[in-house]
Structures are given as structure tokens and as C-alpha cells.
Amino acid sequence: MRLLINRNSLLLSLMLGALMALFVCGLAKAGDSLEGIKSRGSLRCGVSDGVDGFSVKGPDGHWRGMDVDFCRALSAAVLGDKAKVIFVPLRTSERFPALKSGDIDVLVRNTTWTLEREATLEVLFAGTLYYDGQGFLVPGKSAVTGLSQLDGKTICVIGKTTHEADLKAVFHNRNLHLSALVVESQEKAAQALFAGQCAAFTSESFQLKEVQLKAPGGPAQFTMLPEYISKDAEGPVVRRGDDEWFTIVRWVLFTLIRAEELGITQNNVQSRQGRGSGSSQGLWSDEDGLISRSLQLQPDWKVRALEAVGNYGEMFERNLGEGSPLKLERGMNRLYDRGGLMYSPSF
Amino acid sequence: MSELQVAVTLLAFAGVIIAIAFNWLDMALAALLGVSVMLVFGIFTHQEFMNAAQTAGGSLSLLFGGMVVARTLAPTGLFEQVGFLFLRATGGSGKRFLLGLIVLVAPICAFLPNATAVILLAPIIIRVAKALDVDFVGPIVLTAIISNSSGMLTLVGDPATFLVGSSVGITFGHYLMRVSLGGVLAVLVLIPLLPFVMKDVWRIRRVLPAEETRKKLERPGFCLLSLLVLVVMILLFLFGEELPFHLVPPSVSIIGASLALLIIYCSKVEPVDAVVRDVDWKTLVFLACMFLMVEAFTRTGLLQSLSRNLYVWFGTDMLVVAMVLLAGVAAASSVLANIPVVAAMILVVKGYLVAAQFVPEIALGPAFTSWPESTLPVFVAMMFAGTLGGNATLIGASANVVGAGISASHGRPISFGTFARYGVPLTLCQLVMSSLYVIALRWFLS
């Protein structure tokens, strides 16, 4: 009982007293994702379980897509190697449990940025990686040309998403009768649509496009309605309280966008890095490595991210645009000076 | 953590438990060495160490305060007084002694922190056991077990219970209606087992000396003030969080200890140094180290992927998940401090319920309280497991370690094996009873 007394007990008293004081003071429990990633030597990135253009694991075992590329850019910036990513495929209902439990470091899974999610789930969206809107895909042979013509007809929607809530709200506001067929996944929605179980499928436009491309008989069998009932800003999500990590994720995203603004690409990034801040308008400015040290990153983290995946425009074209099977319009995802919403703050 | 660090964490943990179980090393020394190994391998970052220290600080504060207040009461002769009354109530019967012990400990531990209650009651129980001429090791183990089990009686009875309950918005009254009966059964199930597990004490019949008179209280003024501190501490334990400045139990404990030391200092009954020196620092060091190690364990990532795996393995069969949790959390709590285990598992369970789509994703937020009644059995299973699992081994709960420390100070150390000989069979029976209760609750709610 009196094993450790006298001098030792004074030392122990101080040590234990410090522990107690920590509790009583209620020290804020800050996040530690960055330290975890570095000590583990890999980035655990939560992605979708197979959405064309965003995250798909090919037959060669290689992951491809917009979200996948962003994970690789993060890995290159933080760990110096774009290959040090562990992709964790997640169903819709699994994504936030995985993030909250620490199973993943960042969620990059076409997830819509909402107040409800940030407020209740204690997560933070680091920015917008992709702007989209909720539209409707209908059979081409049907006479439906507008939303009001879906009154009383069955509409397929993926459950537990913002789309389900938005669909209900819009139909309620327009005094339309809603008959929703709630399904678990995009695949099941497509099956139901192709089987004629629903008159329309509502989701983000890129998902509708993906379903359209897979339609039996060809894409022409289905058509998208011109109306959109919501605007979705989708981006990477981290746990709240992880301020350093949040800052890094946010500014890797801005680096990709800023690089496009400045015409810096995957191929010319090395040569552009050498030029002064005049041509790159501050993208490389980091006097004495102060910014890098503050973020606990290597001085060349921006170069590594851009070398890994290119700028935002390159990522878009390769995965969603003309260079991809989806061939989506840039639309709202253009840079701000080209009619879009993509914008980076100053560096 | 790197793979090497995960392996080192698991090995260090296993090494400490084995060293304690086989009496190869002193408990506190084994735990200190375990933490040292983790520090050498960089398993704790600065932030992680601070987080773990913060978690440990609450429990250590509770124990420190309890130890100081109990030590302050020692010179008053109060323990002798209560012990005298208890001894008379036994009538010299070991059976009445054990049953009386349950009656004495259970209601107190339903409201007070378990380890604090053990600190206060153990000296009384040892006195009675000595007067009955029985080995007090069994009764002290039973005191710890009853104190842990009684934590299930009310929402505030055990930190693990409170942690689970408050995280899903269960109120004190709701708990009484849905869970307390299970706590009562968990205590009652022990009674028919006592004649077998503690037969030496149960069968004892002693003739008490008829003419023995109660000793008078020494220093009644000092005793009154010390008791006043105890009463203030108990009241603040019960109502402190309702005050405008929210006094949580560890803070109350620190306040109680400070007041007790102030009384000692002003009354000059004995030096403050003497009281501080008699605090069971070794037990506090051991528990601090175990908290640090458990924090490291939770950072191995082994628990984190359970949410998704529970859904993959068991789908939407909530009763099966409840049973798996009951067994798994109980096993973990038998060797790990239950608070960090339960804290980690709350997220796992919430994650499972979201992944299985029993509740919307916003249920992962701390402010969400609209949990369907149908999900209650899963959380109740976790409460039972976290609270009762710690009864199995010496290192499963703070009250066990504290009880063993007090026993050792009276000349009878309690080994890992000795505790397990009582703890394992009693815990297994309690868990069987708990699983039946969870099944009944599931049936009732559906």
C-alpha cells in the first residue's frame, strides 16, 4: 500500500494531479487524423462502392474517378506518394458511421454539403469538389416532358439521401401526389426503371447519366427532364475538431482549382514551379517554408498533388467530361471566370 | 498507427495482463512497464497522450477524493461504530453477514461512484469479517462485485451506464422503467450462488459476546465536520450537475478531498502529510496506466471497423447483434477499463444502427435523442456488458483494484487468480441473466 511514498509519492502526486487537472479543465479533444495518417503511412479514403466517374474499381484492381483522384492528390500532398491511399468502399448508409468511428480519414463520396450534416453529425465539408442538381430520368417513349406530368406516378429514389427529402418537399410544395419507390442503391433504381416499375428515377444528374448509358437498347431509350429540383454541392468531409486536417483537405482542393485558373497542369507543373510568384500569383509562395511547416507538410506538397492528378479541369475532363464515357458538361463546375462556380481563394 | 505499433500495443497489453495474472510482476510496475514500451515505440502522440490523460483524470479524481475523505473519517472511530452495528445485525451468522453486505452496498452504489463506495465501506466490512473470524478476502471481492453490479440499478450508478444512457437520451425515469429491473436481477442472481462460491463464510456461526458495548466516538466535533463533508459530497454527486455551473462527479470528488484536508489541517488531528501519504498511490498509478493502455488499444483501429462488419456479419438481426455485443463488450470489460471500451462501442453501435438503416444518419450526432424503442435492447446489452464484465477479473473495474488495495493494506493481498475464482462464475451467471433480460426486453418492446 505504501509502496511509493515520500519523494516518489510527491512525483506521483504531481503526475496524477496533472491528469486530474486536465480532466477538470476540460481540455478540448482535438483531432489527430494527420498524425495518424503519417504514423500509419497511408491515407484511408472513404469512397462510393462503384459510381462511374467518381469511384470505380476496374477489373485490373485500379481505382478510377473524380473522388479517387482527389484522394490521390491528398495522399501525394501529405505522404508524398499518390499510391499510399487505402480506398474504403462504402454504401450510402455506411459513409458517416465510417467517418465518425475513425475507420476512414476523409470521406470523398459524392456527398451533399448540408447544414443538417455539419450541425448534427459534427463533420465539416472542406469545399465543393462537384456541383450537381437533382433531375429526373424518364423513358424516352413516355409522354412525360415536365415534372407536373409525374403527378401520381411512381418515382424511384434512393433512400436515406437528400434526394428523397427534396423529392418529398418539392411534390408537397407543388401540390403533386407523390408515389415514391424507395430503393437502396443506384443499381436497384436502374433495375426498377428498366423493368418499368417506376415512371422516373430521380437523383443527381451524373447518376442519371450513368444509368442512361447502361440502358438496355441504348441511351436513346431514356431522356432527362430539363427541370432540376435542387442544387447539390458535393465535397470531401472530415470530422469536426480536426482543424489541421480540415485545413489541409480544404487547401489541397483549392490548389487543384487554383492551378487550373493559372494554367498549371500535370505536365507543366515542374517547369511552372521554378518561375516566380508573378506568373503563378502566389500559388507557390511559402516564405521560408512557413506555411508548409505550419501545416506539417513537406514544402513541395502542392507540386506533388498536381503531379499526381493534374489540376481540377484535368481531373474533370478525364473522369466526367469529354475524356470519359459519361461526357458530362462542365456546367456549374467551370471556373468562376468561365461561367461556373469553381473558385479558389488567394494563397 | 503503423502495423508495428498495432502489434506492439497488443503485445504490451497482453504482456501486462499475463504478468499480472501469473503474479510475475507487481500490478503497478507491470502497467508502468507496459506504458513505457508504448512510449518507446511512439504509440502515443502528444495529443493522444493528452486525450488519454484527460479520460483517466476523471476516474482518478473520483478515487483520489474518495480515498482522502475515507482516510479523514478513519480517526473519528466512525467505521468502528458502523462496523459494530453491522456485526450485531449479523448475529454471528456468515449467511447474514453476506446478505447484509449486499443490502448495505447495493443501495449506496446505485447512486455513488462504485470505487468511492468501496473505499468507504471496505474498512467496515473488514472489521466485521475479523470479528466473525472469517477470511475477509471473499467479502471484499463480493463488495467490489456488488458495487459494480449495483451500478445497473440507476442511470447514474455507473459511469459506463451513464455514458450509454446519456448518449441515447435515456432519462432517469425511463431507465427505471426499462433497465433497473435488469440491475436488480443481476444483483439477486448472486444470492443463490453465495452458498457455493463463498461457502466458508456462508456456513460460519459465531457466538457474539453479549456484553460488548459500543465504543464512544472520539473527537465528536471533528467527526461531525468530516461527516458533513461526506454528506456535501454525496449531495453534489447526486445534484451537482443540476447546478448552474455543472459540477461533474470528478470535480465533486476533488472539492470533497479539499474540504476534508482543510478540516484535518484546521483541527490539527494529524498532519495533512499523513493523510496524503496514506492515499493508495499505487492503485492510482496502476489505473492511470491502464487507462493510457486502453486508449492506445482503441487507437489500433480494431474497434473502428466493427460498425460495418456487424452489419455485414449479422445484417438487420438486432437481437443477435445485442447478444454478440453482450458477450464481446463483457469480455473486453473484464480486462479493460470499461469507460473507454464503452465510449468506443457507443459509436460502433450507433454506426451499426445507421448502416443497417434502423435510424437516419443524423442519429450519429450527439444531440439526436429520437431513438426508436426497438433499438433499446442493443444499448441495454452494452450497459450490462460494460458494467458486469468488469466483475470477472481483478483488473476489470476500479472498484476491484481499490478493494484489493485495501485488502492488501490489511495484510491480505488479493491475487488475479483469487479474484477470478470468485469473479468468473458469478459474472457468467450475471451475464446469462442479463441476456435473458435483453431477450425479454426485446420481446416486450416489439
Number of domains of chain A: 3
What is the average per-residue confidence, as pLDDT of chain A, rounded to a whole number? 86
Count of helical regions of chain B: 22
Low-confidence stretches of chain A: 1-12, 18-31
Largest sheet of chain B: none
What's the CATH H-level superfamily name of the largest domain in chain A?
Periplasmic binding protein-like II
Shape of chain B: globular
Could you tell me how far the N terminus lies from the C terminus of chain B, measured between alpha carbons in angstroms? 42 Å
* Computed Rg of chain A: 24 Å
Helix content of chain B: over 70%
Low-confidence stretches of chain B: none
Q: What characteristic shape of chain A results from the CA principal axes?
A: globular
CATH class designation of the largest domain in chain A: Alpha Beta
**Biggest protein-protein contact in the assembly:** A-B, 47 and 61 residues
Q: How many helical elements of chain A?
A: 14
Total DSSP E strands of chain B: 0
Helix share bin of chain A: 25-40%
Structural class of chain B: mainly alpha
Could you explain how this protein is built, in words?
The complex is a heterodimer of chains A (347) and B (446). Chain A has 347 residues and is α/β, with parallel strands linked by helices. Chain A has 3 domains: 1-29; 33-129 and 235-338, Periplasmic binding protein-like II (D-Maltodextrin-Binding Protein, domain 2, 3-Layer(aba) Sandwich), CATH 3.40.190; 133-231, 3-Layer(aba) Sandwich (D-Maltodextrin-Binding Protein, domain 2). Chain A has 14 helices and 13 strands. Chain A has helices spanning 7-25, 33-40, 66-79, 95-100, 115-121, 162-173, 186-194, 205-213, 243-262, 269-274, 277-280, 290-295, 301-309, 312-319, and strands at residues 43-48, 56-57, 63-64, 85-90, 106-107, 123-125, 130-139, 154-158, 179-183, 200-204, 222-224, 231-234, 237-239. In chain A, strands 7, 8, 9, 10, 11 and 12 form a 6-stranded mixed beta sheet that branches. Chain A has a 3-stranded parallel beta sheet with strand order 4-1-5. In chain A, helix 3 (66-79) packs across helix 9 (243-262) and helix 3 (66-79) packs antiparallel against helix 13 (301-309). The longest helix of chain A is centred in the last third of the chain and has 20 residues, at 243-262. Chain A is globular and about 65 Å long. In chain B, helix 5 (94-109) packs antiparallel against helix 6. Chain B has 446 residues and is mainly alpha-helical. Among the domains of chain B are: 1-43, no CATH class; 56-161 and 176-204 and 214-283, no CATH class. The mean pLDDT of chain B is 86.
